[in-house]
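Lab meeting notes turned into a lecture example. A postdoc, R.K., suggested we walk through two folding results consecutively so the class can see how the record format repeats. The first protein's sequence and structure tokens come next.
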Amino acid sequence: EEDRFNEKTMETVLVNKEDECEAPILREDQDMINEFARLNNKKGGLNYEIQEFEHKLEGFSDASDEIMMAEGDDVRIKAGECFFVVDEDSATSIIEDMQKKIHVEFEKKKEELGALEERMAHLKASLYAKFGKTIYLEDS
């Protein structure tokens, strides 16, 4: 067995001699490895953005519930550092418009993440097919 160092997890991984692959690393292979690393990094950012959109959508849902509980009273809406007073129907309309905009962006990010994960899976399959267990590609 030979020790291999995995930089991502900062641990040594043992590789059996029979699992080693003598395939040369071509420029195309290195390009695929680099692309996988870039996509993996981008995936982390997209996951964070998606979580932020989910949090915003929850906030709008909570705000919508609060407006319903106002029972016809005027509602204060915060815009930046200021509050302004609107009637319940206007507040509901504002919240719904904001929810729609955020939901559209949320869906775009989810689609982008799906395409990114599909590309990563293709790269991973190609590289594992060539290098077997001698390469370690783990998504974040």
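The second example is placed directly after the first for contrast:
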Amino acid sequence: GACWLEGGCVRDCLSGVVPWEVDMASTLPPQRLLELFPRALDTGSQYGTVTVRHGGVSVECTALRTDANYTDGRRPDQVNFGSSLREDLARRDFTINAMAVNVRARKLFDPYGGTRDVRGGRRRSASERMGFAQCEHTGFW
């Protein structure tokens, strides 16, 4: 399976900040990750997430997914595991968090213009293409 660094750690690196946490996305379903990494913790496999532990480092790894409705405002009511990195990134709040890096290929995947927004100090909804308004940088990062 393939995996990518994703979200805030990519944003932080582009901003010149050392990330305080690293999240990964994978084409592998959570049960397969738990099989491959016996020390991994099931920290939310129903949402696609396991915490892989290796050499004193813990990394949350989440299967590529789409989701629907957040009745409690935090966790999706329905999760569908998938294989599209673009669809997975579309779930993100802001374009600056909707980027991924394939470490092996040393390639950035930025379908929603997050790099431009990091450099321009802007925060835009990753869903802006559907008509959401732009928010200007407020010093959040």
